[in-house]
Amino acid sequence: SELAPVLMVGSEGSDLTDAANWTFASELVFRDLEPSRMVGVPFWEEGVIREDGKGATMFPPGWLETNVMEFTDPDHLWHDPEGRSLYLWMRAHTGGTGLACVAKVVESDDGSWTTQVATAPSGEPMLYVPCPGGQMRFHILQDPEDGDYWLLCSQATDSMRRPDRMPADRYGLPNNERHVLTLYFSTNCVDWCFAGIVARGDTPRQARHYASMVVDGDDLCVLSRSGDEHAHTAHDGNLITLHTIREFRSLKY
């Protein structure tokens, strides 16, 4: 993939419609890295996987659809006490499930930002982190009340299905399920605990996916790109649905 996540930093008090008021971090291009270290990436050979016109093409591995994270807990291994490091949590297009891509962006004294590979405490580079639903667009929100993280993602249930035996209403690759929207919580953005199902379509065609959320007092408000039985595909929906999770913090254990 040629895609490169680019962090943009702007002052809240400036005119954010003026590009001159934004600082752009350096680019880190996925194809310039070493994406495979015996983790089955890519899962499929590149090219058309299904011949039925359902969007099942394995494109080159890559990352996309970024979340920006800052680890404020001093006990976190990736906490920066100087507050100059941000992390990018991204959808991992690998053909598989359960992984997200990660990169690090560091601010220099001159105000510039450099995007680089994240590293483990051993010094080894880290391109992937465990993430439920990391194969699709997901949204991570840090709770301003206690600092915990909440994850909205698409639940994969059938990613090992042979493509030639997939039901007609399934879209894309076997890992490309979009009709079960799930919620997780974590204290560190790596160890995720299942909180529940937010919404579910009656069939794989009836998507509940690509969702975003905001905290509203004790509740969590979720906006989902959705579809019903009239949707063209699970990808091309025809609805936007709003879901409210009352007293969402009570789901933690």
> How much of the polypeptide forms β-strand, as a percent range?
35-45%
Name the structural class: mainly beta
**Overall radius of gyration:** 19 Å
Number of folding domains? 1
Number of helices: 0
The total strand number stands at 18
Which stretches are low in confidence, meaning pLDDT under 50 for 5 or more residues running? none
Bulk shape: globular
Instruction: Specify the helix fraction band.
Output: under 10%
Cα end-to-end separation: 39 Å
Give the averaged pLDDT, no decimals. Answer: 93
Please write the string of helix (H) and strand (E) elements.
Answer: EEEEEEEEEEEEEEEEEE
Q: Could you walk me through the main structural features you see in this protein, from its secondary elements to its overall organization?
A:
This protein has strands at 8-10, 22-24, 47-48, 57-58, 62-69, 85-93, 99-107, 113-116, 118-119, 125-126, 128-130, 139-142, 149-154, 180-186, 193-200, 208-216, 219-226, 239-245. It is mainly beta and 253 residues long. The chain has one domain (8-251). Strands 5, 6, 7, 8 and 11 form a 5-stranded antiparallel beta sheet that branches. It is globular. 36% of the residues are buried.
